[in-house]
Amino acid sequence: MTTQIKNVEKIFGSFRALQQINLDINEGEFVAILGPSGCGKTTLLRLLAGFDSPTSGEVVMKNQVVADEMSFLPPEKRNIGMVFQSFALWPHMNVRDHIRFPLKHHQFLSEDLKKGMDFRVDEVLKMVDMYHLGERMPSELSGGQKQRVALARAIAPKPALLLMDEPLSSLDAELRMSMRKEIQQLHHLTGASIVYVTHDQSEALAMADKIVVMNKGIIEQVGTPKEIYSSPTSPFVASFVGKANLIQGKWEGTEFYPFHQHAIKWDGTSVTSELRGENIFPARPEQLKISFREGGLKGVITNVQYQGKEIHYTVTIEDEQWVIHQDLDAMFSIGEEVYIHLKESQTRAVKKQLHFV
Ligand SMILES: Nc1ncnc2c1ncn2[C@@H]1O[C@H](COP(=O)(O)OP(=O)(O)OP(=O)(O)O)[C@@H](O)[C@H]1O
Question: Does the complex come out with an ipTM higher than 0.95?
């Protein structure tokens, strides 16, 4: 089922929570809505679910307008499943009954599923590895098991569109990583379209086919994880997704002079024209190198964080603070004067201008 969001706006009182949102969710696609707190992710998901209606614009599912300024189809009349951060399990129902419930009440249930409800309950319980715990009550389950039940309940009636609102954020870090894989597997097994709201860029990069980056109620960029990470088209996407240092300077074609320093020239062939237009070079922490070798931008180490396999440095350069990740082969201390270079693969050294290189 293709779902389309066309020119959608949502206004609460005088606050514009969503502006001119246009988005297609294709059949079987895993779409992550990524953005910081308050950017409008949940509001957008609620419009898709039918918990709220747009102020203007329309939501179309399978060629049917399900919401616009005039009409509105409630959640139970949309062929969707939902998974929430809070699990939202019913305390009086055991695991098996949680899965059976939507099978009894979902309006779009196929004839096959209507005839084989018990078979389907067993099938999804096995999919989420909860078959052996079918008789347990929610109070007898761990956080990860509760979220598996919530996932099983959502996929049981085979909805065409699965909406997930930060489904892993109340789990601990290790469990989050393993549940990511389980959600990916469920996506492959069910073939459902998924809209997955998260503020965690690594979750979006790891799982999604398409990432929609939102900021202050607008869509900043839509693209594959690789496009979003490697070719951000706005300073916000570069800093939010790639944690890039937004370095000011002057562009001449595809060459960049950081802080307008003519002795230092960086190759910026991979930088998008949008960022060049803003006189910015987005340098991710791993693209920069700290050394005592002159010829780079001069700075001072102002913070050091040991991370095991690498070290995260904060370097102050002309009143700006850059974050740079280095491996362990060279160590620097707070207060040391250093030089920052773009890594060799990223740059063409300007040998004739820099006699010391
Ligand atoms: N019912 C409402 N009335 C007024 N303002 C609202 C309402 N619902 C949401 N907002 C505002 O709309 C903005 C977007 O909220 P939303 O919950 O969509 O953000 P979010 O990106 O999901 O954030 P988070 O990651 O913190 O959940 C926020 O500024 C919020 O305060």
Answer: yes
